[in-house]
Sequence to fold (402 residues):
Amino acid sequence: MTRSPIDFYFDFSSPYGYLGSHRIEALARKHGREVVWRPFLLGVVFKDTGSQPLVEYPIKGEYALRDFKRSARLYGIEFVMPETFPVSALAGARAFYWLADRDAGKAKALARALFAAVFRSGHDIGKGERVVEVAAELGVDPEELRAALADPAVKQRLRDEVGAAIERGVFGSPFFFADGEPFWGADRLDHVDRWLETGGW
Amino acid sequence: MTRSPIDFYFDFSSPYGYLGSHRIEALARKHGREVVWRPFLLGVVFKDTGSQPLVEYPIKGEYALRDFKRSARLYGIEFVMPETFPVSALAGARAFYWLADRDAGKAKALARALFAAVFRSGHDIGKGERVVEVAAELGVDPEELRAALADPAVKQRLRDEVGAAIERGVFGSPFFFADGEPFWGADRLDHVDRWLETGGW
Fold:
């Protein structure tokens, strides 16, 4: 029997999404699961839930910055807070789905490289050209990707993915589904682990 | 050398505060620490941070209900969601500090009993008379407590505590300080544990 994959929803501009991206594959492997990476746009979801980026709340935002760094150190993950923040995940997410339809493995590599560009190098991937550069290092043809980023079908593909995420109840980043059970937050990965181990409780 | 106590800030109407209250004392004991319980009023803090109770956010609120129950089951803690929610923590918090000045141990017992009244029995402790009943079961004189709840000095005592909490950067429930380091959320208790074990990282 094939066991169902873990769905991993995230926004490229989400520090906790970045931290989750470093832990989810090992966790899945432990349970013989695959991970389906699903970038979405937190900004669209925030409109529906009346939320805003954590760092933009007074007081809470300062704590969040401290917790991002402290959590990264705890898990031994390199982390810098980019000067431009939040960054738009639009171009990165479009590039991801366009590439995923051609080469799922390479799309995952692109997602990791985009996260690293933001939270290790502090780059602003909101600029489409930066996404093209990051993808080029993975052997993606710049001209093809530039054309894809402007392609209405590619834009629609992302809109559909974001719509499907909202439909499913995703409202934060990272967000996981394990055997249909929703888990919000990098700090719920221990619960995901336990859920897969026990079959739920 | 006496090691400094853990400060435990919470609102009596906070499900995660309730869950945290079941785990913090054992954690502190493990590290030879005391816990100072510090009820405050989340509603006052929400005004400063532009937040609202988790359950009142669309979509996120439904997930929160599921996560309260799932987290409680994981830790083996009895939990019901009260019909009246959120409840006002005002009378409970006033009673707590009034009692704490007389008998710190009994104040902690009252805090536990008030949490149980809300999240095990589903009672509305927003009504001062309900707080008086809960306290009476611990041997607190009802007349004395009724008088205290109406006493301007007792009201001021709570205002001072809430002000001090805000001053310290507390913006959610539960909120902990371990050796001066702030931790927000019942799901940060594993980090608190590690922090006390390692002296920080």
Notes: The first strand of chain A starts at residue 6 and ends at 10. Residues 168 and 182 of chain A are 9 Å apart (CA to CA).
